[in-house]
């Protein structure tokens, strides 16, 4: 069976739309991965709980796997981005906790120094 020219054109347009949508999804995911990787790099040695960084690294790896598939689904990409944001928030919270603990320890040391 031979396709009519208009059917071929419709098929080509639909394939083009699918490629554009896929490229857009991959671009969004790539941006999210880059941001997460930056947080991961910047947080080395600056977290109260290293497990938060390990979890973020795992999620980055999973997101990269999702992004490397030929046609990742919208749901898979959004799920990967959501996981990245959650893991980033956990790392940021751990960084704030370490900053607070370090500040408290410095204040305690200063108070002890003045007392002696």
The overall pLDDT average reads 88
Radius of gyration: 23 Å
Poorly predicted regions are none
What is the helix tally?
3
Distance between the termini: 95 Å
Percent strand: under 5%
| Helical proportion, percent range | over 70%
In this structure, how is the largest beta sheet organized?
Answer: none
Instruction: Output the structural class.
Output: mainly alpha
Number of strands: 0
What sort of overall outline do the alpha carbons produce when their principal axes are compared?
A: rod-shaped
Element-by-element helix/strand order: HHH
Task: Please describe what this structure looks like.
The chain is mainly alpha-helical and 116 residues long. The protein contains 3 helices and no strands. Helix 1 runs antiparallel to helix 2 and helix 2 packs antiparallel against helix 3.
